[in-house]
């Protein structure tokens, strides 16, 4: 399988960093922000997150309900988010380090690619297109234009219960021959990351968020991050051979049991 199939392998990297977008690279989830402010509101949205974690509904159905509740024209939604969504204060530092050190960054998102690219272009500048973005898309409703009231809807990446099953991108990298296979990192925060959680060498789960709860429940090794400064420090240590992904992956549960993971320990 060549680099055409696996774009992040083009430079034969030793490490690849896969990451969620909303609430991970950004300080807020753009889809949550839209739903809370110009959709059906925070309470109903949060209940959908909880129901997904508890297995009562699929993430796909929860997310479709959220986006269907937003009626503003799509171009207005993009403008609204570009004006309001902020980057994690340390992500740019991480991204510049990754470019210098041949660590490709691949964004795997349940959000919509045009929105993600518009936000990244606004917050990162011209280098934003050096990140591969894999996400859902958007399409016009029958007989309408996406840039009119109630004119757009989600165009899901695949047929899975996630809408975008992130493991589909991760797994081919994980299955490379051992002498070619890079070390794979993944960072995420919530229910859209559940499909990716078991497919990587080191999972960074955001402190105080649903992904921590899921990892503990499903016995998935992880480490905690609060911002991209802590991610950069850990990745540098691993790249320099000062620690291993195995040692780092033990830390999340230890912090959880100590009450330092930002979610209530059982």
From TrEMBL:
InterPro entries associated with the record: HAD-like_hydrolase_phosphatase (IPR050849), HAD-like_sf (IPR036412), HAD_hydro_PyrdxlP_Pase-like (IPR006384), HAD_sf (IPR023214)
GO molecular function, one term: phosphatase activity
Keywords recorded for this protein, A-Z: Hydrolase
Pfam families: HAD
Zinc listed as a keyword: no
Superkingdom per UniProt: Eukaryota
PANTHER family in the record: PHOSPHORIC MONOESTER HYDROLASE, UPF0655 PROTEIN YCR015C
Protein name: HAD-like domain-containing protein
Annotated source species: Lineolata rhizophorae
